[in-house]
Amino acid sequence: MAAITSPSTLAISAQHVNKIFNLKTENEVVALENVNLTIKPGEFISLIGPSGCGKSTLLRLIADLITPTSGDLKINGKEPHQARLDRDYGMVFQAATLYQWRSVSKNVQLPLEIMGYNREERQKRAQEMLDMVELGAFGKHYPWQLSGGMQQRVSIARALAFNPSLLLMDEPFGALDEFTRERMNMELLRIWDETQVTVIFVTHSIAEAVFLSSRIVVMSPRPGRITAIVNNDLPYPRNNDTRELPQYFEKVTEVRELLRDAHEVD
Ligand SMILES: Nc1ncnc2c1ncn2[C@@H]1O[C@H](COP(=O)(O)OP(=O)(O)OP(=O)(O)O)[C@@H](O)[C@H]1O
């Protein structure tokens, strides 16, 4: 089931969003302070910043895994809870979180099973998704028979199986070697282009953020704030040649300096 969104609706609208953990206790942590961010459908947004600046917290607020302490947050114009019920997003984490005792195809089918698709529909859709991530021949394999990069591709196939309008990714390639990571970056851009999904991507890597994103959200810690939003007009489609462009290096330097400034404020 596709998440139906009118083209004019923002994918994400965050206005004055605050998140304080352990409010009014001695362990109080201001994880996010006055976050204002709007994301249009089809954008590729990276969240970047040092450890503890609230990147995962922002993603978890969007996914309705936690709720804001104050402020207004809408997903496709809806409350996060409603967006969750409507399955507006799929999620991919750093660890592939696949069920080792289920075949690759059965892992991709899992959300469809929960949503009540019949067996034939599930199998057809899982095969389409596995073809998309170039694992069409691996449906009968088990996750433990696949490399880390292949397992993450299965996670992406599963997250997109029910055609969500948003894909939330929390350091999905952080555990992969540099070479696999660069290949996965290119695969992800191809999938983004094919599906037109809106991506929100958490990363520690400046190079990854610049290669992938149409905009980069720079954050600083204690309290977690957005300190800059960088437009990235490097042309798509991007490929290995993109990484050699002078504009690519300029953008990497720009983001690095913004991160350094954000840290110095701390
Ligand atoms: N459930 C929680 N209870 C208390 N504090 C929390 C909780 N979750 C996160 N925090 C705190 O909120 C702040 C932001 O954490 P968050 O995990 O969002 O940062 P991050 O930028 O994703 O970090 P990293 O890059 O290390 O994953 C941190 O200070 C963290 O300790």
Q: Mind explaining what this structure looks like?
A:
The structure is a single chain. By secondary structure, the chain is an alpha/beta fold. It has a domain of 64 residues. It has 8 helices and 9 strands. The relative contact order is 0.17. The site of adenosine-5'-triphosphate has 13 residues, from β2 and α1. Adenosine-5'-triphosphate (ATP) binds next to β2 and α1.
Overall strand count: 9
| Radius of gyration using CA atoms only | 19 Å
The SSE string, one letter per element, is: EEEHEHEHHHEHEHEEH
Report the average pLDDT across residues.
Answer: 92
Number of helices: 8
| Coarse morphology | globular
For the biggest β-sheet, the strand order reads 5-6-7-3-8-9
N- to C-terminal distance:
45 Å
Tell me the structural class.
Answer: alpha/beta
Poorly predicted regions are none
Small molecules held by this entry: adenosine-5'-triphosphate
Strand content: 15-25%
* Sheet having the most strands: 6 strands, mixed
Could you estimate the helical fraction of the residues in percent? 25-40%
